[in-house]
Amino acid sequence: MSRSLRFSEKWFRRGLWLIAVVFANFLIGLGGLVVGDLPKVESPVRIEDFIDARQAEAARAAIRQQTRRLKEGEDARARAQLVFEAARNQTQGERDTFANWLATRKVTAQAAQDAELVKRTQALDALKAAERRAEVAVEKLDQANLAARQAQEQAQIRLAELERAAEKQWRDAQQQLELRVFLVRLAFTLPLLALAGWLFVRHRRGKYWPFVWGFIFFALFAFFIELVPYLPSYGGYVRYLVGIVLTLVGGHYAIGALQRYLDRQKAAEALSEAERRQEISYEVAHERLNKGICPGCERPVDLKDGTRNFCMHCGIGLFRPCPACGVRANAFARYCHACGADMTATGHTHAA
Ligand SMILES: [Zn+2]
Ligand SMILES: [Zn+2]
Fold it and tell me: Which of 74, 190, 243, 329 is the most exposed place for a label (fewest CB within 10 A)?
């Protein structure tokens, strides 16, 4: 990935970066599909799988049966209650009539009425007995309903106990499943990341760099973003730990690179002017000059001042007379801008 001043080459390079991004995009899409299909390897676990099916079914059947019984019992009780209330009202009415009749009888005190008294008392007793029977029927239904309710509650408790007993096993199984899914995903994405690291170190400047960079983008995305929804509760640790390790490695590399750059720069400044000039590539020299910095030491220089021919920081020649016509020409030029003579022919770069 050497730099270039050529217009078309710049645009080719931009196009190749676009290819890197597009390549990464398609890889991410494909990776997403593959990862999305992975959980189908494992079937989800249900709490049902850990409950004794026969006992659970028995408890459920009991609940259904008792619920039906209770419903029927409550309907029957409501009907019996109506019967009882009717009987009670009838008794009450009869008792009032009898009391009135008794009061009149005391006033007249006719002996002929004794038979009537007996008959009326008997009728009232019969009504009282019927009322009592209706009341007993209601009480019996109350008892039956209470028994049904208790049986229903017991069946519910039994089912809850079965579920509670199975819950721990179920949770353990679920956690294991999550762990397996996570490890499968990790087994896919971690080697991608390792391969991306190797490609970065070895081939990032190679001829096929757009594909290398596309793959690196894809691997980073797959590991740090696509893995996230599948992380178990502790999965964040994996992500952050790998992130920390990568940052440390990257930081170490960058610090080393800075140190190497400074050492190289120092060593270069110790060389002779001609040797230094040879070290700097044509493209790099002109790119730096365009930015107003010295091609040798990368410090700012004033190129517009017509009297300055050397860098005041490192002493490298910036302008020199053309060997053919003597005009003040760029010391890094291949050909004189005034006469077109080959500037590199003499090899010597001493300004007058
Ligand atoms: Zn300089
Ligand atoms: Zn010339």
Answer: 243
Ligand 1 centroid–CA 263 distance in Å is 16
Instruction: Provide the residues around ligand 2 (an ion) whose CB is within 5 A.
Output: 322, 324-325, 336, 338-339, 341
CA distance 235 to 226: 13
Closest CA to 265 of 218, 299, 230, 306: 299
What's the alpha-carbon Rg for the chain, to the nearest Å? 51
pLDDT for 39 equals: 59
Q: Which numbered ligand comes closest to the C-alpha of 326?
A: 2
- The pLDDT tens digits of the residues spanning 183-228 come to 888 888 889 989 999 999 899 888 999 999 999 999 998 888 877 7
Asked if residue 347 has pLDDT above 70, the reply is no
Which residues fall inside 5 Å of ion ligand 1, going by CB? 294, 296-297, 311, 313-314
Ligand nearest to the CA of 338: 2
CA of 172 to the centre of ligand 1 (A): 69
Measured CA to CA, the distance from residue 282 to residue 49 in angstroms comes to 74
CB 318 within 8 A of CB 331: yes
